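Recap for those who missed Tuesday's class. We walked through two folding examples back to back. For each one, the amino acid string is listed first and its predicted structure tokens come directly after. Nothing is annotated here on purpose, so try labeling regions yourself before you check the end of the notes.
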Amino acid sequence: MRGYHRYRWQLAQKKYERRMKTRRHYLKFTDEMKRTVRRFIIYGQYSPEQICGRFRLKGEEMVCAETILRICRRLILKLNLAPGLSTRWLIIPAG
């Protein structure tokens, strides 16, 4: 019979498991991560890229630099700061 295909659950399961192994696992930006990033930016004067690189070298999980930048931008907008103001000198309130 032409066009007739049987469903093969074993093959489907293997494909699913392969996709799950190779996909990127997205991390949630936890409160602990936010505190760590805030500390590095305020006291260490590190860039988001440097923060991500540090955690990668240690083998610890951290969100990407773009996520850190997005959080910083939201904070700047929340505090109604000028768009051209450097975040290096921004004092981020705790909490």
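Example two. Treat it independently of the first, because the proteins are unrelated.
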Amino acid sequence: MGKEIESWLLRADIDALPIEEESGVVYHSKVKGKMHACGHDFHTISLIGAAILLKENEDELKGRVRLIFQPEEEINSGCCKKMIEEKCARRCFVYNWFS
């Protein structure tokens, strides 16, 4: 989004943890042995909300905005390398990175 040279990157981590969900809440994990126990659901919806607001105001942006939903952040599996190899961040010269 945006049109200028300066870039901003917003990142959210989206992975679940290898924890058995025992909360009993209606919105519990449906995947056995996996749970969003550390706020990643909030991170994900926050970035989606930011994307909506930024897109609605795209003409007013003073720079380009990139959004990255990063998998496997908790287990350090080299996901950033994989994202680069898969060209998720192609042509992305970032001056300001927020996560």
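Answers for example two:
The two ends are 17 Å apart (CA to CA).
The CA atoms of residues 25 and 31 lie 14 Å apart.
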